[in-house]
Amino acid sequence: MATVDLGSIKFNWKNNWATSTAYAVDDVVFNNPDSYVCITAHTSHASDASLATSDSAYWNKMAAGGTDPAMGGDMTGTASNAQIAANAVGTAEIATNAVGVAELNVTDGTVGQALMTDGSGGLSFGTVAADFSTMETNLAIVAFHSATTAAKYFMEDQVIDNFGDTTGIDTTNSTGEGRDLAGYMSGVINVPGNHFGDGTLGNCQFMASGIAQSSNTTDIDTVLTTGSVSSGPGDNSYGGHNVSGTAEVGAPTSQDHTNVPNCTACFEFTVPAKNTAYDGDMTVLNFKDLTIDAGNTVTVDQPCRGMLVYVDGDCEINGALSMTSRGAFADPSGTASSDAASVHALGLQMPIKKTGETDTLAAAVFAGTGTPAVTALANHPAIGTAPTNYAGKTYTIVKIGGAGGPRSATGSNSDVTTPGGTIANGTGGGGGGGSHDGGVLNQDGSAGTCFSGGSAGGGSRGGTSGSAGSYGPQDFGGRGGYSGSYIPGMGGSTDSGGSGNPGGNASHNTGGNGTGGLLILMVSGTLTIGTNGKICADGEMSGANGSGDAGGEGGGGSSGGGRLIIGHVGSFTGAVGKATADGATPHGSPGSYSGFGGTGGNGAVDFDAIDSASTTSAGDMTLISNTFTAESTATSADLILHIEDMYANTVIGTDLKAYVSRNGNSDWSPELTLTTEVDLGSNQKILVAKGIDLTGLAGTTSMRYKLVSTGQVLASKETRIHAVSLAWNP
Questions:
Q1: What's this model's pTM, rounded to 2 decimal places?
Q2: What is the mean pLDDT of residues 414-430?
Q3: Burial group, residue 203, by CB count within 10 angstroms (0-12, 13-18, 19+)
């Protein structure tokens, strides 16, 4: 009988094929992705990796493998790694109430609880603990730093004040508090004061030999037309005539320009934005110290809308600071200046801090003077208005000045005895022209403006009847009146024109060129006007009357004086009378038939001691808010502060303490514990006191906060409060 070995009729599974393995016939291995059976015993080696191709002598493929199929529809991935597709299971796939507590295998909770995980796979129902304090703090911070407004922010149960003004502060009960214009409260009070320029021209001394300049950022030679650092002063450039007898342009005879001081030794600043030979922007000069030596004049190179001189230091004038004969021919209602604006109906207005005054002016009104002056005047502080309420004075230059003076009677050889008009806070009017021997064309003077004294009328002698018409003096500081003999067809003989921009024509003596201008001088230090010094904005003399100043024959009038405003913080040495804005007197000497023209009207002069550029003080501060009314009884509160510890030495709880009340300005809470919520950098941080219990306090809805800073020292310790939030809960 045959013997059968049952162990030899089955395959031997050897799992994955491997190298250096002894395989026998009928061994079966897996060689991805197929299965193979051994047909010849052998020991495998590395070259047998692909059994189907490299070792066909040893192996036969037993079964071909397949790929892992991809899943579709509501399944995703492969068959070996199938997953439910995203959003595949919803209300349509799960029946209502099909999955509940029993299916989740958790213990049911109570109403309002949520299913929560313990972080390790365990599920249970519980109450979610909510803490909104951080969110509330962050909302307060957002309000503190809003860039859209500086006003106070109100919410139903919260008030936030970032000190854009002081309306949230009880100023009656607070003490030592000061609001900086940067928008914070502090016991160290820095009060912006009067503006004295930026000192760009530095220290300047004007001398016969040149100019000594130091500590400047602008080279003075770049802004001068006449005179220089190296060569000293030069001849007056306006009018072309001076006391040396240089002939006036267009004049039949020489004419002394006697009212311009030191006219052969002038330093003339270039007028900006010139639009005619007799008009341009107000010239703004910024000095640190200013000295003008005797015999020298500092002025502008032509008529313009004024000269504004800031001296952020000491000022000594032994020569002349002058706007004499430099008033502009400019209509204040026009828009010819670089700021393209007309002058306000009230004229020009400048706020100056001055102790003991009670004027109110929120900002300077200098439209129509040109961009440089408008920009400079924007630095002047508000006076008498919240939030500063600084005592101060409004310096006004009225839009239209004094009226022109009258002419003499027709046919009279008498002098004009009534001068041009004067007006408070204004310039003077021009004088009228004289008449003689039947002359009829003598003229009234014209009114002054905020930029100029009035131009004067021309004189006449003889001639036929008629009207001066367009030959009279022009309004707004324009041309002086013609003489009667110069008007075509009117006849007459020797007489003179009126002063103006330019002087009126005449057959004999043309009127003087110029009118009194506008000059403002602000000095932060001492002001000295020496024996030979003067500050002036005077009018210009008429042309000489008569023949060689001695015969009769109707003189023209002289132009009106300008406007002077002078302020100084330090002491003043000299005589106030050396500051003049006078109308000019008639030129010439009396003759047998002469009739003098009219004197120009005087302009106004302000000469005052004013307050300093700034004041600083330090002391303890108690800052109490106004009452904010809660909708119902407040039981708890949060206080949030944005502070700046300037010198990083404020001790919270010692140098800064905080309290709240629900009873107005009484029954304050115990001192609050303030902690740092956010460090903002630059010594700024957010401090908070959360969950303040109010139930033990008197009162109900009258919410207030109180902050107390102590130990404040100038340049040593300063705690600035930038914003406060007080929130409450019923």
A1: 0.66
A2: 90
A3: middle
